[in-house]
Amino acid sequence: MTTKCIPLERLKREVNLINPFINKISDLYSVRGLDVVSRPHRLNFSALIYITEGQGLHYVEHQQHRLRTGSMLVLGKNQIHAFAKERSVDGYVLSFDCSFLSNGSNDPYFDLLLSAMVHINCVHHADEDIGPLFSAMVNEFESTSEFKDEIIRNLIRSIILKAVVPSYQHQKQSSQRIGNNDYYRLKKYIDEHFQDRPTAGDIALALGKSTKQLDKLAKDHAGLSVKELVDERVLVEAKRLLAFSQYSISDIANRLGFNEATNMTKFFKRHTDVNPKDFRQLCKIGLHQK
């Protein structure tokens, strides 16, 4: 039976997000079944998928990634992904809430970790020492040490800093300014309220900042204004709903805070050069990669 909405996968321990968990890819196929793991679904948490053997495909948003031993996928909260129809790889799936990564309010790297995870979905050739870090983490999940959580936290941070952050910095061709957690708060607010289409003034009031401060924060970390960050988030959601749901274009426009479907069409075409109907059709025939 076909449903309109995109299935949502929730973190197993929502009442205690401090505890991430790890699974083998082969176990996911075995326990959940092929139909479930290969169906596009949205995450309400973040995940790292590290390939230890084999070659295969994985789908994140509108892109197909070819994987091999040493590849690592980076999935952020609210992103849509799907495993391949036939399992040809094995490895680890590490699921966690990003708040687990923080070392406190004065953490100098937290924003950088988050920015890297937002912008990088696949590291095709992770360094050889990433595998041992995952192996150490698997062992630590079985540990009874009082320092277990802290060790796991630092192992995850090490993996992201060693594999994901360099790819992000290379992609940007410049190091990002490492600030405090204000940018995380800004991105979190936009992620939770983008459907209301908040203005920079609305967000500034909610976060206790001036619009000038927020725009500088957004420019320093993403090279975009606050309005552009909101538009970017709305656009991402529009693409997800067009590609993976059965909602009509009018329904999608309404869900994203547009007064009329024509307004969303203008917005979408301005940012992508194609209209929503054509984009949906391109996704169906597998030609649209971005």
Automatic annotation (TrEMBL):
InterPro entries: AraC-bd, Homeodomain-like_sf, HTH-like, HTH_AraC, RmlC-like_jellyroll. It comes from the Bacteria. Gene3D superfamilies: Homeodomain-like, Jelly Rolls. PANTHER family: ARAC-FAMILY TRANSCRIPTIONAL REGULATOR (PTHR43280), TRANSCRIPTIONAL REGULATORY PROTEIN (PTHR43280:SF32). Residues 184-282 form the HTH araC/xylS-type domain. It comes from Photobacterium rosenbergii. It holds the Pfam family HTH_18. This is AraC family transcriptional regulator.
